[in-house]
Amino acid sequence: MRKTNLPAVFGLAALALGISAHASFAQPQIEPVFSIWDVNLGQNVSELPDAMVGEIACGTNGGPPGQTLVSFEDFMTCTPEASGLREVEFSYDDEQDYIARALELEYQFLRGGTSVYAHPVLVSLLVDSEGIVQGRRIVTDDRISDLARRTAYTLISNFKARYSDWTLECADIPMKEGEQPVGSQFAHELCTGQSPDGSRSIAVEATYLRKRGQLAVNIETQQVNTGYFESRTRYEEVLSPYTTWAAP
Questions:
Q1: 3-state DSSP call for residue 42?
Q2: Based on the structure, what is the number of domains in the chain?
């Protein structure tokens, strides 16, 4: 009877198990414990879990976070927009992100901690004076490397797929005076639409261009100007009767 080398068998089994586990972990399965999509429009901010997000602050319409808030319920501290709604920005809890880093996994799904479809973003809620969440806003984060920022405008494709059953109307916006392409590429697209039941409306705008003064090469030094371009996707969804910034 042939003798089995048990240590060798157990070693191979452990190795196989380790490879299998690593392969499974390597897939983009790490998700935030609470994200912008977990918020139901129409719910009260008192129902939102402060402990399951990172930082909470007043939003600045696509800019960096404003005044820090202790809780979502402190929304009245924020200055209302023209619509009367107050923007409350938050970041995702980064515990899972740290786990991914520690395990040396491919964690692009949560790149930078707060992301949507692997794009680093700023996420915020639009809250009325009664504390009801009337909308959400997502803007790609400009505070990243130029290489990563170049693809920010492509996020609009993910939104178009997500809302494919809505009455979306998309149009390319012609180049305006002072604007230029980035190399040979120019993109400026705006999509607007309503949910099938008409209770919500969205607007998504994507831009990839150079604005006036954003020259590719410094005229004096002839050196390439880094960062001199705009690549951004802006998304907004609101409950009726509120309207997005793109409403006529």
A1: coil
A2: 2
